[in-house]
Amino acid sequence: MSAGEIAALIAAGAFVVLVILLAIPLVKLGRTLDEATVAIRAAQEGSGPLLDGATTTLNQVNTQLERVDGITSNARAVTSNVSVLTSLFTATLGGPLVRAAAFSYGVSKAIKARRVGRKAAAVAPRRSVPLRGRRGRTS
């Protein structure tokens, strides 16, 4: 055996050791990928019923939202009708009602003033004897 052959044998042995050292992490990486594949399959199998439940819930929510939309549309229409009715009432009865209120206020003030005038006349002292001459003077 020549020196070149010995060097080739050492290089081949070093290459075998290198391949063995690199094979161990590759085998571990393969096992990790297998476990990840199993976990992904399990998650996929478990997500099917979960997604079905979410779809059912979403359909029910959409049904309820359609009902709420109908209710809000009706409420909007009622609000609009009440607004129009209020405007009509104000335009029709507002002016005459204000005039009637002002008239009744004026009448009540006049009646109160008349009553106060009568009470003042009744309370005022009446003199039965007219005053003649000067009082308190002796002559």
Written overview of the protein:
This protein has a domain at 1-93. 87% of the residues lie in helices and 0% in strands. The chain is built from one helix and no strands. 0% of the residues are buried.
Describe the secondary structure blueprint for this structure.
Blueprint: H1 3-123
Keywords:
139 residues, rod-shaped
Indicate the radius of gyration in whole angstroms.
55 Å
Helix content: over 70%
Number of strands: 0
Order of helices and strands: H
The fraction of residues assigned to DSSP E strands is under 5%
Distance N to C terminus: 184 Å
Largest sheet: none
Output mean pLDDT: 87
Give a short synopsis of this structure.
The chain is mainly α and 139 residues long. Helix content is 87%, strand content 0%.
